[in-house]
Amino acid sequence: MTSRVRVVLLSLGVAALLIQAPLGGQAAAASAVDAAARHVDRAQLMRDVETLAATTFEGRRTGTPGGLKARQWLVDEFRAIGLQPAGTQGYSQPFTFTTRDARAVLPGGRPFRADYAAANVIGRVPGREIRARLLVITAHYDHLGIRDGVLFPGADDNASGVAVLLAAARHFARNPPRHPIVLAALDAEELGLRGARALIDSALLPRSAVAMNINLDMLSHNDRHEIFAAGTSHTPWLRPLLQEVQTRASVNILFGHDRPIYRGGGLEDWTQSSDHGPFHDAGIPFVYFGVEDHPAYHTSTDTADRIDPRFFGDVADMTVEAVRTFDLRVE
Ligand SMILES: [Zn+2]
Does domain 13-329 match CATH 3.40.630.10? Predict the structure, then answer.
């Protein structure tokens, strides 16, 4: 056989692989448990989720007493961890917005116009390298609140992401990174990614100063021990870094959910489905970690007791390991 023939066969082989790659994501085998990196206090992780999903926070809807309690709890946690205040008022970045709901014409008395007073909670870990650009870790802390007397605890969505953000904050506060790291617990994601838009539109994050965004939303249960890393189709250089992280992780990292559905192997495009969307619109590379949708999503059954602590702990360790890798390798 001539190399040309072999080249053709080879390229056919590669083509088959490439065609196969976007079809339903690509799983890389999780490394043996004992080789996996361990960074997170898993008992603390679960305590933080249970606190945020507790009835006292009333499902953390933006602008409600429960939402305000969650915000104050986060400010106290950021201070206790020793993060530098990085909002416009200490740790807080207050912002307001108005929603208009066409469904107001339908019976049921939904208001057409609603004004909201919200606030992001933002802290910072200084970097060792003066010129290094920012790594921005985001997770929204708001959820759906109480509707018709029913509580929506939002344990997976998104108390889990906030708990991992706090775990990363504790890790990097103890292990100073190369890059300065901004940690932003965002408000009003459920009302249209408002907190992320307010952060991006503010002077707090000059575009040229930001290397990348790591967004965390729904991290805590999946029956197949799989977590999606969306964003590598937009930023291909992220993929080999995540494949490297895979060799030190106990959870399967899947790639996908970041192309139009007809080009993404039938997977829904999540590019605008959470707080990484405004970063993407601003031309900032992102990776979004999130599980595939599950039956508890946006229901009153999204409770802390449905969380799989082993899976959740593995995802939290993988996330911190991923940020450590980005810190070492991203300029
Ligand atoms: Zn969410």
Answer: yes
Q: From CA 271, how far away is CA 268, in angstroms rounded?
A: 9
* CA 189–ligand 1 middle distance (angstroms): 7
Provide the CB-side half-sphere exposure for 325 (13 A, CA): 22
Centre of ligand 1 from the C-alpha of residue 161, in Å: 8
pLDDT of residue 109: 63
- Tally Cβ neighbours within 10 Å of residue 173: 19
- pLDDT value at residue 34: 55
C-alpha of residue 10 to centroid of ligand 1, in Å:
43
How many whole angstroms from 277 Cα to the centroid of ligand 1? 12
Q: How far is the CA of 273 from the centre of ligand 1 (A)?
A: 8
Give CA–CA dist 89/101, Å, rounded: 31
Ligand 1: centre distance to CA 265 (Å): 23
CA of 175 from ligand 1 middle (Å) equals 28
pLDDT along the chain (331 residues), means of 10: 47 49 47 74 98 98 98 98 98 95 72 90 97 97 96 98 98 98 98 98 96 98 97 97 97 95 86 98 98 96 97 98 98 90
Beta carbons of 129 and 275 less than 8 angstroms apart: no
CB atoms within 10 A of CB 74: 24
Q: Please give the pLDDT value at position 260.
A: 87
Domain range annotation of the chain: 13-329
Residue 158 alpha carbon to ligand 1 centre in Å: 5
In what helix (H) or strand (E) does residue 277 lie, and over which residues does it extend? helix 276-281
CA 208 / ligand 1 centre spacing (Å): 27
